[in-house]
Amino acid sequence: MSEPTPYEKLGVNDEASFEEVRDARDRLLRDNEGDESQQEAIEIAYDAILMDRLRARKEGKIAVPDRIRYPERLSTVIPTALQSSPQRRAPSWLSQLLDNPSQKDIYISLGIFAGLGVVSFFVPAATTTWLSFGLIASVYLLTRKENRFGRALLISLSGITVGVVLAALTNQVLVVSRLVGDGFFPSSIQMVIILLVMWLHACFLR
């Protein structure tokens, strides 16, 4: 079996942009935190890709951004105060939990849960059905990110739990249910709150 190419090691193709290559390297470094051999292999693959891009640039095949050809120029535009201050990084457990979804993924997940919220207003009696659809959608969206079904199911269930708790607390604080009629607030507004929390879990956690 042939040795994987640097592009295959980072999980990108040879037409990937510099930002995509860099993001792939950063993601793999986070995923392999603590494994020095894997992190070294990732850095080697990343450097090999940069060298390949520079070589292609010299041959006139691609145009490499200035930030790759002349990285030393970046230091001239960084304020002195920022250069002297230590770089602040989020805790590793937090960076592994939070996700930075693309606009497309945000719109897709928002459309799914917003659709469920709208339908729940028209058919408020089918609370269990909408929660089931929301759970399935949440598990699917989370599994699609890293292909980890167990973790996706756990996060989805936590989203339902947090949503139910918030909806119950809201029902205790507000008196909307008395103003709009019995049954409307608990069955419809609370469902929207639960679906909103589930969307936040499915979209911004991993």
What is the total number of structural domains?
2
Q: Strand fraction band?
A: under 5%
Please provide the ordered H/E string of secondary-structure elements: HHHHHHHHHHHH
How many beta-strand elements? 0
Cα Rg: 23 Å
Q: How far is the first residue's CA from the last residue's CA? A: 33 Å
**Helix proportion of residues, in percent?**
over 70%
Structural class: mainly alpha
Low-confidence stretches: 175-186
Number of helical segments with 4 or more residues: 12
Instruction: Return the average pLDDT rounded to an integer.
Output: 76
Form type? elongated
Q: Please outline the major beta sheet.
A: none
Features:
206 residues; mainly alpha; Helix Hairpins; 12 helices; 74% helix
Task: Give a verbal description of the structure.
The chain is mainly alpha-helical and 206 residues long. It has 12 helices and no strands. The two termini are 33 Å apart.
What's this, in brief?
This protein has 206 residues and is an all-alpha fold.
Describe the protein's topology.
Blueprint: H1 6-10, H2 18-31, H3 36-58, H4 66-69, H5 74-77, H6 80-84, H7 92-97, H8 103-122, H9 127-146, H10 149-173, H11 176-180, H12 184-204
Helix pairs in contact: 2-3, 8-9, 8-12, 9-10, 9-12, 10-12
